[in-house]
């Protein structure tokens, strides 16, 4: 047996073939691996080789000092497998198999190892990121983290104002931390965006604030450039630097990118976990791609219903909702389309809209479509109406503050929209298929503001609610404690642009 020593960590109890496999996978990066004989261990002494116990191991055997670990990546690439030398020696001495003496350390694997894992009752025993994504459950019981400012490095306030609320949203923080704890980093990772969020979340320390003479001392600000770079690697997001960016657009790209990376892993999990004894509902429940079926509604009225396929990823579980769009035209069955959303778009330009509740009710207004042509080529007067089909645990509301004007181009809507920390969504906004009779309650957990008079410029800041109930106003590197009354007050210098609301029954549970 050999032990293999690396600047970041040490792997013990590997065969020569396993060592060569590891070395081959990293040879491209010229990492300074060193192969040494495994030290002889007595029954009374167990030596564990890793980056935290190197000094203790030196008292048992002589080893060369490894270079200091890299700060950014160390936490991502540490090997968490404990040495099994003592258990193996005891088993050899006793010549018997002791189930209780087997290593119980949780296996840490990458998604590519799923095909090598054993099966339980005919189903794959999931490990690593596959297990985290597949078994993720939304919970608002999160950890209190110490706030840190974010440096505005070349017009990146739009990014900072989005990353800060996400870091303080308990389900999102928990998801990323679970991935960090269960997945070994790989330089050949196929999920660079998830990796960048792991790095970002790991920049924060958990626990209460540090105070000195009654003054809170926040952690030093840092630059989350790696998140920006990971997004820029996407083809549709490669033109960000050097121009004024929209915070809502950035949020959309970020959540879509994370959702797609989760989908690249989850299909194989879904296929392997599917129980063949259970009947398939594709084509009847609207979850298949291009699925279409007949639906019976109120008063036995039928409609042709279509749905967009959306794989159930953790991102969808946290932020994903669905709207029902109904198209009606004379002489035809209603045409219903179910579409997903991650941020609900709210038109605030009409004169009658003054509150968030007004804007939500406006979503269901009846729109008349002039010049609509049927499949037979006949022009008829058609209408379209939209309702909310399902609501997510974290509801993102986007106020459409920028509208196109044929004279002046894109203009900013300067209107204060009233809102409170409690939001009740009226039953009439919901689809009749859900039979909702009581308002659905949400609590405000974050606000993103746009500063400035023009749509083509300006600045972004945010307010975030911490796990201890404290509100913070964050302006890049500046962090200020504020009362709840200031969060919902009207501010002439800034206007609310994005809201993050958490489902009340989940927060209070």
From TrEMBL:
GO molecular function terms noted in the UniProt entry: cysteine-type deubiquitinase activity
UniProt similarity note: Belongs to the peptidase C19 family.
Biased composition range(s): Polar residues: 94-110
Residue ranges of domain USP in the record: 148-504
Stored InterPro entries: Papain-like_cys_pep_sf (IPR038765), Peptidase_C19 (IPR050164), Peptidase_C19_UCH (IPR001394), USP (IPR028889), USP_CS (IPR018200)
GO cellular component annotations of the record: cytosol; nucleus
One Pfam family in the UniProt entry: UCH
Alphabetical keyword list: Hydrolase, Protease, Thiol protease, Ubl conjugation pathway
EC numbers for this chain: 3.4.19.12
Gene Ontology terms describing biological process: protein deubiquitination; proteolysis
Protein name: Ubiquitin carboxyl-terminal hydrolase
Organism this protein belongs to: Basidiobolus meristosporus CBS 931.73
Annotated spans, Disordered: 85-110, 270-297
Highest taxon above the source species: Eukaryota
EC class name: hydrolase
Catalytic activity annotation: Thiol-dependent hydrolysis of ester, thioester, amide, peptide and isopeptide bonds formed by the C-terminal Gly of ubiquitin (a 76-residue protein attached to proteins as an intracellular targeting signal)
Gene3D superfamilies: Cysteine proteinases (3.90.70.10)
């Amino acid at each position: 047996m050999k032990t293999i020593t690396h600047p970041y960590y040490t792997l013990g109890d590997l065969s020569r073939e396993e060592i060569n496999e590891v070395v081959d996978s990293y040879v491209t990066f010229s990492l300074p691996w060193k192969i040494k004989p495994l030290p002889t261990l007595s029954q009374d002494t167990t030596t564990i080789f890793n980056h935290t116990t190197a000094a203790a191991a030196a008292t048992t055997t002589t080893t060369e000092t490894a270079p200091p670990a890299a700060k950014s990546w160390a936490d991502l690439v540490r090997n968490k497998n404990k040495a099994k030398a003592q258990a193996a020696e005891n088993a050899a001495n006793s010549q018997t198999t002791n189930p209780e003496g087997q290593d119980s350390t949780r296996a840490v694997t990458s998604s590519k190892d799923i095909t090598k894992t054993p099966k339980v009752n005919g189903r794959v025993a999931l490990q690593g990121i596959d297990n985290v994504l597949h078994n993720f459950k939304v919970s608002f019981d999160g950890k209190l983290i110490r706030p840190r400012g974010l440096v505005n490095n070349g017009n990146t306030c739009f990014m900072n104002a989005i990353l800060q609320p996400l870091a303080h949203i308990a389900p999102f923080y928990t998801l990323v931390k679970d991935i960090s704890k269960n997945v070994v980093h790989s330089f050949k990772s196929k999920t660079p965006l998830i990796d960048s969020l792991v790095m970002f979340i790991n920049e924060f320390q958990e626990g209460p604030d540090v105070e000195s003479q009654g003054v809170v001392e926040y952690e030093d600000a840092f630059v989350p450039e790696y998140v920006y770079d990971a997004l820029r690697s996407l083809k549709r997001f490669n033109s960000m630097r050097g121009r004024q960016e929209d915070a809502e657009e950035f949020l959309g790209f970020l959540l879509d990118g994370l959702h797609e990376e989760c989908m690249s892993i989850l299909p194989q999990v879904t296929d392997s976990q599917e129980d063949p004894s259970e009947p398939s509902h594709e084509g009847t429940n609207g979850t298949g791609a291009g699925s279409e079926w007949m639906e019976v509604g109120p008063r036995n009225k039928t409609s042709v219903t279509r749905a967009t396929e959306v794989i159930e990823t953790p991102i969808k579980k946290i932020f994903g909702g669905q709207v029902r769009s109904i198209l009606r035209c004379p002489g035809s069955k209603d045409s219903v389309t179910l579409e997903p959303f991650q941020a609900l778009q709210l038109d605030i330009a009409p004169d009658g809209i003054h509150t968030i509740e007004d804007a939500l009710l406006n979503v269901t207004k009846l729109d008349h479509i002039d010049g609509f042509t049927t499949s037979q080529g006949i022009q008829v007067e058609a209408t379209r109406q939209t309702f909310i089909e399902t609501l997510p645990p974290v509801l993102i509301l986007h106020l459409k503050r920028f509208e196109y004007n044929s004279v002046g181009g894109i203009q900013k809507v300067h209107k204060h929209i009233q809102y409170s920390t409690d939001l009740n969504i009226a039953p009439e906004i919901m689809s009749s298929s859900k039979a909702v009779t009581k308002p659905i309650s949400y609590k405000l957990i974050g606000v993103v503001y746009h500063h400035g008079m023009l749509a083509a410029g300006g600045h972004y800041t945010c307010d975030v609610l911490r796990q201890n109930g404290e509100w913070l106003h964050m302006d890049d590197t500046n962090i200020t404690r504020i009362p709840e009354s200031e969060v919902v007050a009207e501010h002439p210098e800034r206007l609310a642009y994005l809201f993050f609301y958490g489902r009340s029954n989940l927060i209070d549970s």
